[in-house]
Design goal:
Number of domains: 1
Structural class: mainly alpha
Mean pLDDT: 87
Shape: rod-shaped
Largest sheet: none
Strand content: under 5%
Distance between the termini: 50 Å
Radius of gyration: 29 Å
Number of strands: 0
Length: about 200
């Protein structure tokens, strides 16, 4: 009987020890996964900060939003996009929500900037085509005269272009805000990584 009792107790101890070791191993894996995720998102955000600065600099120098920079911004978010389900490993709910909202809103803003710059190109291209056509059809017309005629023919587009030219600088200011928000998230996530 004592051998049976010893075998049962030994079995329970072995099972308990196995379960405990498995639990510790799983906790260790989750901690490593969280650390790697946070490191990757921090790297994404640091890359975004430098790309925001480049976007602002390009705008200030050329008055143009470069699509290559916008595309690099989109590409700099891959770690977050591919692993956002794992963000639940971050214990601080407010931080998780801030990260989610930052990526969502900044992605929408990148799309908005691209659409505005693209529409500006389309309007300018149409204006140039009309100017060219006027110059071809009317001999002796100056560029200034052709421009005036083209603008008169494109009243709606001209108003749209005026609006876009007012909105883009405001949206560049929002890029500065996203840059600052990304810096704040880097700091907060680095603190979370150590928790």
């Amino acid at each position: 009987m004592s051998q049976l009792l010893a075998a049962v107790v030994g079995g329970f101890l072995a099972a308990g020890t196995g379960w405990f070791l498995q639990w510790r191993l799983e906790a260790s894996r989750l901690k490593l996964t969280k650390s790697l995720l946070v490191t990757g998102i921090v790297d994404d955000l640091k890359s975004s900060v430098s790309l925001y600065e480049r976007l602002i600099d390009e705008w200030e120098k050329s008055g143009t939003i470069w699509f290559t920079t916008l595309n690099e911004l989109r590409e700099s978010r891959q770690i977050y996009l591919k692993n956002r389900d794992w963000l639940v490993l971050v214990k601080a709910e407010d931080l998780r929500q801030r990260v989610f909202k930052y990526y969502h809103r900044s992605s929408d803003h990148i799309n908005l900037l691209e659409n505005q710059q693209s529409r500006k190109y389309v309007i300018q291209q149409k204006l140039n085509e009309i100017i060219r056509d006027i110059k071809l059809r009317q001999e002796g017309v100056t560029h200034k005269q052709a421009l005036e005629q083209a603008v008169n023919a494109m009243q709606a587009e001209d108003q749209e272009l005026v609006g876009i030219n007012e909105l883009i600088p405001q949206n560049i200011q929002k890029v500065r805000d996203y840059r600052d928000e990304a810096k704040e998230l880097v700091t907060a996530l680095q603190k979370e990584r150590s928790v």
